[in-house]
Write a structure and sequence with these properties.
about 130 residues; alpha+beta; Heat Shock Protein 90; five-stranded antiparallel sheet; globular; binds adenosine-5'-triphosphate; binds magnesium ion
């Protein structure tokens, strides 16, 4: 399948829309549920931590699927802060999203700078962590 991309408004309802975009594209894929969870974390981060969450902001989701592999990315509008993959705080406050992405994906990464970043993850069927 060629890559598919879609713009979303940088507001909370778009997280659900981004999840539906991914699950619709990946209908029948063993990676659909994992991809849905990852896009949910990355879209939420784009809204909460970058200029995509400002009035008129947007983010882009790109999905490229093969029978046993999925590559997905969320492109945001940037922020002075850099994404950091924290260990969960003992008191249970935030900071789990990227840790989850790193554990559920075969590989993941960040590209870009304060003007816009791409956070991507690749998934391989059979290597996904069982979380359902
Ligand atoms: N796209 C991004 N651009 C810039 N900084 C980011 C981005 N995504 C995450 N960050 C930074 O990395 C930190 C860790 O992100 P992570 O998703 O792990 O935790 P969180 O969003 O703070 O909390 P949680 O996801 O558990 O609700 C964030 O607090 C934020 O400072
Ligand atoms: Mg997060």
């Amino acid at each position: 399948m060629p890559p598919f991309s879609r713009y979303f408004l940088g507001s909370a309802p778009s997280v659900t829309e981004a999840r539906r975009f991914v699950t619709t594209l990946l209908l029948g894929s063993p990676l659909a549920k994992t991809a849905e969870l990852i896009v949910s974390e990355l879209a939420t981060n784009a809204i909460h931590h970058t200029a995509s969450g400002r009035f008129g902001g947007r983010f882009v989701v790109t999905v490229q699927a093969q029978p046993k592999r999925v590559w997905l990315a969320v492109v945001d509008e940037g922020s002075p802060s850099t994404p950091k993959c924290f260990r969960p705080y003992p008191e249970g406050e935030g900071g789990r999203g990227l840790l989850l992405v790193s554990e559920l994906s075969a590989d993941w990464g960040i590209w870009g700078d304060e003007n816009g970043r791409t956070v991507w993850a690749s998934l391989i069927a059979g290597q996904e962590t069982s979380w359902t």
